[in-house]
Specification:
This protein is mainly alpha-helical. It is built from seven helices and no strands.
């Protein structure tokens, strides 16, 4: 069996065009591998934006994250919890509930989608219920 494999490899590598094609395929594979790695690590950093949707460069992103971390530093108290709750409500207020497409929501989430939205707003769904919902979707 080993001799047969060696014989076939010799036949393949005997022609110069086969060697060139194999080298080109290996170069293409390595090029696209490196390209995807670089895109995932470096270019993705340039796609960050602030909460106000302003695009940030890499160094601006680090500064912005550092600023937010310093704002969140310290002990959790009632004043801080109220600030978080007010921010959460302001985000929810941005999305008008009167402009929901009833047909699409029923097709995706089912007939009880309003109860799901209400449970999500109040935080009354258990993690098990959320997992069951995600499995259905």
């Amino acid at each position: 069996m080993g001799k047969l494999i060696l014989f076939e490899l010799k036949k393949i590598f005997k022609k110069r065009i086969n060697i060139v094609l194999i080298v080109l395929v290996l170069c293409g594979i390595s090029f696209f591998s490196v390209k995807s790695i670089l895109l995932d690590t470096f270019i993705a950093w340039n796609e960050f934006a602030t909460f106000d949707n302003q695009k940030l460069s890499t160094i601006e992103t680090y500064r912005y994250m550092d600023e937010i971390l310093h704002q969140q530093a310290g002990m959790m108290d009632d004043r801080y919890a109220d600030r978080i709750e007010a921010y959460r409500k302001s985000i929810l207020d941005e999305y008008q509930m009167d402009q929901i497409d009833d047909v699409k929501m029923k097709s995706v989430y089912g007939e009880n989608y309003l109860q799901l939205i209400e449970a999500g707003e109040k935080g009354t769904m258990s993690s098990q219920q959320i997992d069951e919902l995600n499995e259905k979707l």
